[in-house]
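Module 6 notes. Inverse folding takes a fixed backbone as the condition and produces residue identities as the prediction. Think of it as a translation problem where the source language is geometry and the target language is the twenty amino acids. Below is one complete input and output pair. Work through it position by position during the lab.
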């Protein structure tokens, strides 16, 4: 058994985005994750990376016979991931009241954008809407208008990772007490939690509401990205004075304009000067000068480049599963190493209706 969650069984109802990420993280950490699909579609693709290391079962939960099989499966489960809109599981007859009555230890994790309650609970939405309501989107982008980032803040960080953490917390509680519970995990609130440090800065006068007016939002010349001579990009972020001084030294910048790092009024002018400087060399030339130093520098790599970077290779940060390159399970554990991911596979539900024993053989005999 590999991974700190080995021995746990999680059933996941089929969904998109954040819920599959939570399932993947739990499977990466050793849990047995069984994903329920409504019908058998085309063959599983090697590119289904968020389904990795999971077992796939076909059940149509609108059919009474399949609902009965699902309920039998849930009796063997430690957790359930529900990605449906509020009330959908109840209408199918598989709501938390029903399932917890059969399995009081069950952790019923519900993943939605707005949450199970509130005036917007029944409305459709996507990452861009959830992070809008949390205060995150208003802080991202150029000063002219907010720009939606990739759906990392709401769907993935404030959704999938938030749910994986809360499921693990509730599973620990269930192991200690024998009591399961329902988790109402909302992406708006997850995204809000990711913004905690910025709410703190705003409350203490260290953050302006205007975009590109702050030291971490593209406003500062020393925390930014710059184009290079070969139309690539590099990033710099020497927040601390000693790292900033080292950067100026490495760049050969003796211009006194750069002496006052925190002169907000001078930032636009200094960004322009810095941009002109970085256009004088290629990205690889800047890497040769600045990488592996304390100037807080990195090349801006594409998804095709990142797996081949020396640091990623040294740490095994990416793996190839059936020909598909993907981020490796992480983090690194000293005592419960994570198993290499496997491609998902369809299995017959009849083989899963009894949960395998996780007790050591000697203990089982005793």
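Target side of the pair, the amino acids:
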């Amino acid at each position: 058994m590999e991974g700190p969650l080995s021995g746990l069984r999680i059933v996941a109802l089929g969904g998109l985005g954040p819920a599959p990420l939570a399932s993947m993280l739990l499977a990466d950490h050793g849990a047995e994750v069984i994903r329920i699909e409504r019908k058998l579609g085309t063959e599983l693709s090697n590119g289904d990376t968020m389904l990795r290391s999971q077992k796939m079962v076909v059940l149509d939960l609108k059919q009474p016979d399949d609902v009965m099989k699902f309920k039998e499966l849930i009796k063997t489960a430690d957790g359930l991931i529900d990605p449906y809109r509020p009330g959908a599981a109840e209408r199918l007859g598989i709501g938390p009241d029903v399932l917890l009555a059969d399995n009081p230890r069950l952790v019923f994790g519900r993943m939605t954008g707005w949450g199970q309650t509130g005036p917007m609970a029944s409305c459709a939405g996507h990452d861009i809407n959830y992070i809008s309501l949390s205060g995150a989107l208003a802080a991202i982008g150029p000063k002219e208008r907010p720009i939606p980032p990739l759906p990392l803040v709401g769907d993935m960080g404030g959704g999938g990772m938030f749910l994986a953490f809360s499921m693990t917390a509730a599973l620990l509680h269930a192991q200690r007490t024998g009591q399961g519970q329902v988790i109402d995990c909302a992406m708006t609130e997850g995204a809000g939690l990711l913004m905690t440090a910025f709410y703190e800065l705003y409350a203490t006068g260290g953050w302006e509401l205007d975009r590109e007016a702050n030291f971490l939002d593209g406003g500062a010349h020393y925390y930014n990205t710059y184009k290079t001579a070969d139309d690539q990009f590099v990033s710099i972020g020497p927040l601390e004075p000693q790292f900033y001084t080292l950067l100026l030294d490495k760049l050969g910048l003796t211009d006194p304009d750069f002496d006052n790092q925190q002169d907000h009024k001078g930032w636009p002018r200094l960004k322009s000067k810095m941009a002109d400087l970085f256009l004088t060399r290629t990205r690889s030339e800047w890497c040769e000068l600045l990488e592996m130093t304390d100037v807080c520098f990195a090349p801006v790599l594409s998804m095709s480049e990142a797996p081949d970077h020396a640091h990623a290779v040294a740490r095994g940060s990416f793996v190839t599963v059936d020909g598909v390159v993907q981020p490796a399970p992480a983090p690194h554990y000293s005592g419960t190493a994570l198993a290499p991911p496997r491609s998902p596979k369809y299995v017959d539900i009849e083989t899963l209706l009894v949960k395998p024993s996780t007790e050591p053989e000697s203990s089982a005999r005793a």
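Reference fact for the lab report: Residues 224-302 form a domain with the formyl-coa transferase, domain 3 fold (CATH 3.30.1540.10).
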